[in-house]
Design a protein that fits this description.
The protein has about 110 residues and is an all-alpha fold. It is about 85% helix and about 0% strand.
Length: about 110
């Protein structure tokens, strides 16, 4: 969903948000953390300035709602990846126990 942001800073945040969401959708987890760090830093900077400002205009409110919706989708995608990682770790643990049992038989 394309959202129009009123300011250049908002547009930058939205673009970083969309890049991060695309990385998560593609399952490119190696590039996810560097992109997330950049997004979070830019968002924090903007929110710090907003805290001292006036109210938010309707376009920026729509952007904020979209950012939250995208965050929820990213969390869902990350949970799926976490489940995969947990399964792999469990499999590695089972393999290590089998190897140890085999080694102990000699």
């Amino acid at each position: 969903m394309a959202v129009k942001a009123s300011g250049n800073e908002y547009q930058q945040i939205y673009q970083l948000n969309q890049q991060l969401l695309q990385i998560a959708r593609e399952g490119d987890w190696d590039n996810f953390l560097p992109a997330a760090e950049q997004y979070i830093a830019a968002l924090h900077q903007m929110l710090s300035r907003q805290a001292t400002g006036k109210g938010i205009n309707p376009e920026d409110a729509a952007l904020a709602r979209q950012l939250l919706a995208d965050e929820n989708e990213r969390k869902t995608l990350m949970r799926g990846h976490l489940d995969q990682l947990q399964d792999k770790i469990a499999t590695l643990g089972k393999g290590a126990r089998c190897n140890q049992a085999y080694a102990n038989s000699f």
